[in-house]
Amino acid sequence: MFEKNKLSSPIAEFNGVSFRYGNGGDVLKDIQLTLQPGSFHFMTGESGAGKTSLLGLLYMNHLPTRGRVRLFGKAVDTLSRAEKSQIRRQIGVVFQDYRLLNHLNAFDNVALPLRIAGVKETEIKRHVSELLTWVGLEKQIRAFPPELSGGEKQRIAIARAVINRPQLLLADEPTGNVDDAMAKRLLYLFLELNKLGTTIVIATHNQNLIKHFKFPQLHLSHGHLEYIATPATRSGNTTEDN
Amino acid sequence: MTKATDIPFAQDSSTFFICWISMLMVFLSVLTLAFALITHTSVENWHKNISGSMTVQIPTFTADGKERGDLVQTDIDAALGILLSTDGVIDAQILSESQMDSLMAPWMGENASTAELPLPKLIDVKINTDQLPDLEQIKADFAEQVPLAVLDSHRLSLAELVTLAQNLTRLTGLILLLMLTSMAFSVIFVTKSGLKVHRQVIALIHMMGAGDFYITRQFANRSGGLALSGGLIGFVLSLPVMTFIAYYLGNLTGGFIIQATLSARQWLLLFTVPLIATLLAYLTAAYTVFSELKRSL
To answer: Does the ipTM surpass 0.90?
Structure first.
């Protein structure tokens, strides 16, 4: 389904990054982080610990209040709008609230990143149909989001995030609305992408997944980042402690 | 599989305002332009009639049929004196008998002579169409010095009409410009409103890597498409109205003053109006979206 990525420089680097919303207190404090190509991390932490904010910084939804974020070797605060678009096309995001477009059916929702990237319709048809079949939604291909269950929407959101075979995949609670069997199936999809070189960060509370897959954790607590290595840490994972 | 637009325009009823405004603007613009074209054609015809001259008649017989004799020449001299001393009159000459014969030839035949007929003497007056003579002053002077002289002034009235028509044509140009400006402002308003309504979808598409051009194109296509639909409807609706007005004007003036017909080129020009409206809506929406997006993160 996918081809292998070939990147050597860090995908993301955070250097003394803090972030706050408006005039509020710091949500993230002095974060030091390096995501190497091909690494796989779970992001953990209590609700409100700053997981979604950190993911937001990774896909340039926000700019840091202090410090510097570099993505694919480029400082995000110096990027032009065109450069930002180019980098965003290399990032897949699974949102906690799915953010599917209700006026588009399952096929068109998943096809969206490919159309943005200017892929030919014949290619789009082949890839999207294949991926929707893989996530078990081949019968819902023409269904619109309001007609689907939470789990089905989540799978469409995941399919949309991975269809473009991103270099960096960010997922915010991607298995929150599916049963354990489907959660593992989706994680195997992420693993397959990871084996092909995609860097993956999954924010989750699902302890079963964390225990089962044994990837290192980026643990957030009161805005501080802590790195928790695991025995199963693979050679590609090199994340710095705060 | 059919591709829907990424931005749910159909859920935002305000975008249909572009269709309505385009229909109304094209309808009014086509009528205005048609009026300007008809006026322009009529002005050209009137110009041909004016030819920078007018005529003064000096009667050779009194009202009760008696010959006026030497009084005719006295009147001619007096009339010529008045005319040649008036600003805007370039030249004034009495028509010779042979010129009179030529004038009457269509009615009396090539070899006929007008010498024995009770026809008035005619003075041909060349006038400056850029600086028309004071007609009222000439009439007043004639009334005082040559009371029987008749000033054939319809050409001068026609010249004034030409000036009026030319000003009207310029005015229609201004009206067209105002209508196009109003349409552009409407498109800006609707587009800005659409950007607010769809900001979350736009943010999502941006996040997926869509560039400003990608989003701009969607808004511009939508705006242009609606303007084209509305414009074509407006154009079709203007046709029966134009036909009615042409029929009415034709009946009103007998085709003498207004020639309410359009040439093929003029029809082609009218058909560009919905296309101009489409282009205007497309470019205005594109410019609006592009400038608004540049201000966002």
So the answer is: no
